[in-house]
Amino acid sequence: MAASGGRTVGSFLWKCGNCCFNFNTVSSNLTRQVLSRQLCVSAVLHRKNLAAAGPEKFSEEFIKKQVEEFNIGKRHLANMMGEDPETFTQGDINRSIAYLFPSGLFDKKAKPLMKHPDEVFPKQRAVQWGADGRPFHFLFYTGKQSYYSLMHDTFTKALAVEKHQDRLRGKDLFTQDAKQISLVGSRWLLKEELEELLVETISEHDYARFIQLMERLLSLPYCSVEEDFVQRYRRQLEIQSSKQQVQPLQYDQHGVAYSTGDGKQRKTATGTVLLRDSGSGSISINGTNYVHYFPVLQDREQLMFPLHFMGVLGRFDMQCSVSGGGHSSQAGALRLAISRAMLSFLSEGQVETMRQAGLLTPDPRIKERKKPGQEGARRKFTWKKR
Amino acid sequence: MAASLTGLLKPWTPRVLLVRWSRYNPYYLEPGPRKEVYHIPETELTPEQKEERELKSVRPIKAATNSVTSSVFNDPVLSKFVNMMMKDGDKIIAKGIITQTLENMKRKQVEKYHKAPEGKKAEIECNPYAIFHQALENCKPVIGLTSIQKGGKFYQVPIPLTDNRRRFLAMKWMITECRDNKHRRTLMYEKLSQELLAAFSKEGNVVKRKHELHKMAESNRAYAHYRWW
């Protein structure tokens, strides 16, 4: 059904392509064919159950041909857009397609796309049985052969580790503080990633059992023997401080270093700060002195927090502008703007320290909405017995 | 990986709105605003601290709240007390009362210090923060009571209390005592400083209330086995 639908869509687009678009450079029929054919098969992305897909729909030669056509089509597209075919990335492809085929459709999956065939066609397994109909894998009839064979392998490894430990105990070489696998900074494979790895759908329960078994393997003192196996199913977590965008330092005409903290939000208050490295420590907010603008001690303490934390209290001159919100949220917005402006003056380790102190996260807390049937966000209407 | 983790880093509203929820995803960790922690060099860290640091470097951290700073005058216990004293969100008044209380306590203690003979001067505590902490410690109950239903009747059963609960009870008793049992002309800070100084020397109504609770718990000792957790 999908194929016939695809054919009609493809022919429709083919006609569309003929009449609507004039390509500037020499464009082969091949490109249009490739583009329209790629558009047809986007319905395949809806496929959910990978293992029960039945015998493979796309043979290996077909996929290879698709890949070649995609690469040629990519080069033609680059030519069309007047860009260098060698450095044409997927982002460029997406932009060109959005330009050439503007779509007013809301459903993302219905919009025209041109992606590498590996992302379009789901990963499938080769035929699992031989000419005589007998399956190759001994766990084929479980229905989830990769998953169960993985569990089987993991448990075999756990038994092997225990046997190793027993052997060491026999020789009196067993110590409790053997080298442990370092797990900090990495996480287990997510369920989706595991499914991708196994080319099989597994349930939540299956995934939980897999994690349980891996944890059991890790609980053995000598599990470092199987470290490679375990690390295959762990992914590194990225260091958060590397995501911080640090503006480069700017210099004005007197050679004084300055940096701006862009307008930061805290509960509808926005603030901007211009930090100058002049050494006087004066602060002016919206033209007035900070002592007059913030009569409350807590707000002034919030302004000083990033400076005091880094130990640079008297070093900077600040010109701040702030609007919206109340006095507390204005102080919070300015604090965040000051912290961001200060980043240009600091080293990497200090940036990480500031992040861990909670100075660089924008506060996401907002006023909770009022719910229907209640007087406010939490307050209910007065309860009347009758 | 990136697709599912970026969802954890945005401000979120949980799908099922619980009574206690926050705009931070549970993935976020609490911030640590104290300066000294970050100046310890790598070599002097214990393994737990090292592990904590590594964990913090890969997880996003929540923003520090408005009442928290890295200054030496920032006291979490005092901030909690100010929040409990606050009415209708008016923190300026609550903070003002506390500041006046501390000043008042200091004045009284310094007066006592100057009037005391030489030998006794060292025993008089003049630091109002130390007095506040010690007074609160003296008001904290060790054991509490809870109502457990057994066989149609409700019994008051002695139970252990967590640290947070003990601190809360001490602060609550102090505040209610100062609000209720005072002459209408005495100001809050005056009454509060009197109570705190009394609690510091283990006298006064709040400490009496704590002792009463302990006595009740002792008298209901027989029902202790009704607790099943």
UniProtKB/TrEMBL annotation, chain A:
SUPFAM superfamilies: Ribosomal protein S5 domain 2-like. One of its GO terms (molecular function) is structural constituent of ribosome. GO terms for cellular component: mitochondrial inner membrane; mitochondrial small ribosomal subunit. Keywords: Mitochondrion, Ribonucleoprotein, Ribosomal protein, Transit peptide. GO terms for biological process: translation. Residues 358-386 are annotated as: Disordered. This is Small ribosomal subunit protein uS9m. Belongs to the universal ribosomal protein uS9 family. Gene3D superfamilies: 3.30.230.10. The keyword Ubl conjugation does not apply. The keyword Ribosomal protein applies. It is found in: Mitochondrion. InterPro entries: Ribosomal_Su5_D2-typ_SF, Ribosomal_uS9, Ribsml_uS5_D2-typ_fold_subgr.
UniProtKB/TrEMBL annotation, chain B:
GO terms for cellular component: mitochondrial inner membrane; mitochondrial small ribosomal subunit. Pfam families: Ribosomal_S7. Its main location: mitochondrion. It is found in: Mitochondrion. It comes from the Eukaryota. CDD domains: uS7_Mitochondria_Mammalian. Keywords: Mitochondrion, Ribonucleoprotein, Ribosomal protein, Transit peptide. Transmembrane segments: none annotated. PANTHER family: RIBOSOMAL PROTEIN S7. This is Small ribosomal subunit protein uS7m.
